[in-house]
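Box S2. Input/output pair 1.
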Amino acid sequence: MMERWFHLSEFNSNIRTEVIAGLTTFVAMAYILFVNPSILGATGMDRNAVFFATAVGAGVVTMAMGLFVNFPIALAPGMGLNAYFMTVVLGSNGAITWQVGLGAVFISGIIFIILTVTRVRQLLVVAVPTAIQYAITVGIGLFITVIGLKLGNFMSISLTIPHAVGIVPNLDWNLGIGNVVHDRVMLLGIVGLFLDALLMVLRIPAALLIGILVTTLIGIPLGVSNTAALQHPQFLPNLSHLAVGKLDIRGAIDSGIIEMIATFTFVELFDTFGTLVGTAQRAGLLERPDGQRRLGRAMLVDASGVSFGALMGTSTITAFVESATGIAAGGRTGLTAVTTGVVFLLALLLAPLAGIIPDAATAPALILVGVLMMQSVRLIDWSELRNAIPAFLTIVMMPFTYSIANGVSFGIVSYCIINGVRNLVLRARGEKVEQIHWLMWVLFLLVIARFIFIEI
């Protein structure tokens, strides 16, 4: 049955190799089980409910990727989009609840499915310059780092937004590193940061997961880790406060949070495309005759997973770049993904103990995820200023305005203005110009409309 479904011999693989690869992928990305509740919990969501949604969402969608596409790629709630979800809800001054936020995620998933089926998704990836695509990844990495610094008490950020999804929030930044002697949360965060960093430098498998667990243990004598769960340990998840089906689609429509929906769709578009293509190429899957067809099916599963995740009670589910660890371990078929998905479902048994883990243990992981995402900065040609300047604005506007949407917006507008005027000058001189894709001008107009019609 395994041979008929996954074609193991065709990929020169076997059950043992695929299972080991699936376990490797899970260990590499299991940190999301603890980081996601920490981030979304700040919006008022029950952390056990988020843990449940993360495990079930990742498990089911990853298994679907394996069974229906036969790709060794795992999916889970994405870093960056969960942080964006948190900041929009917290920065809305109560105008947007987490239920409404989940409604926006669900709608973005439906849009994503439509874009995938109509192949507009592939067109958008071609339209947006690669420099801006890389810059989006880098900017999100810095944004996640700021979230980690905040959760670890390294710095405090007072955030107020004049409009529910206003352009530029009022930020009050305060660096608190001088209080490390008196702040046990910060002290534990620093210990965890250097521990995680050393494990990563030494290339220890599952470095971030090990770091979170060890930091949590260190936090017990410091009084930072929540030991209440240890007094009455249970190994069945608490299902009394689940967020399944709690999304508010009508509220999302009535609130008119078009920007939030557009941002989820836009960022997920490039994040997923890069991850799917990169990991599939590494496995040599796109070189096969059916490679492009299967990639299209993979995009459809990914798009469907967005709305499914919202139904379960979590932010956008997306392909994880950590899937490359399983591919490096020999995973070549969907059996790798199915194995990873099954283990995510089994992780539900850890839900009652997940509450022990403090923010100070997950904060270092967020900071170091920023390091990994920052690596894309080297792929930008900084000598070509017409692309480098929009890329730079994309990167810096995300953390400094505390908004992923702002970074993407400034990148698109600056690119179109700089290159549009440049083309006019070159044409006047009779020189050749590099055409701006027509879809970029459509995005330009949408961003300008956002700045005009959203009050600040």
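Box S3. Input/output pair 2.
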Amino acid sequence: MTTFFIAFALFYVYHAQGITLGYHRLLSHKSLQVPKWLEYLVVSGGYLTLEGSPIFWVTTHRLHHRYSDHAGDPHAPKDGLWHAFVSWMWKPKVLISAEESQKIAPDLYRDPVYKFLHCNHTHWDGYLCLTFAVLFRLALYFAFGPVVLAANLLATAMSFLGPLLVNSVGHLRQFGYETYPCGDDSRNVWFVAMLSMGEGWHNNHHAFPQSARHGLTWKEPDPTWMTISVLKLLGIAKEIRLPKGQSHYAVAPKKEPVLAADAPAK
């Protein structure tokens, strides 16, 4: 059992922060900078959690911020809780064309790795992601046995659940609290934050979308921010963006303009 719990903890951090730190704070919002090799390593944790093409993920998320809880939001609970939770993946109400995708995430299209994983904006990107995920778990099985594989599968499932709860519960008025009026229904929900490595402080995030830190008080623990802080101490993470008053490199509330690379085209 010791092997199982150690493997689970390691894989949970790898996969969950692959989504939170990799896909979200590094790629979607450019909240910090790390060496490219480390970026790829972190993002691989999200990719192997079946999050799919980083370009598709980022374009969807940038559209979510542009139209949060309004027409054009790819996964708003106003279109149904089940839709916001998971069905938007196979029954999307918002379709993104190849041309729109390139306008929304030109920065990722310039990266040959992310462009390759996107498969020219076709459905093959999903099959490619599934193939890598299966091969990764076969390697785990043959290298470390069924106990480590089981730990990885549980960690993967829990990591995958985190962003689904952020998209759904994180936008329901009956949960959590709102610190910053953002013109949407984003909420800070503690149990979502605990499961998703700090992403559940979602109202804070919508107020300061480029901030590398989502839990903005001591009562709002943010494990992903703790990882970023360690990387900063090691001199690996740089250009870290924080809300005004918390850093010299400050970001403003979202009502003010964001960087062109982070904002989807109208």
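Caption for Box S3: The first helix runs from residue 2 to 28. Residues 2-262 form one domain.
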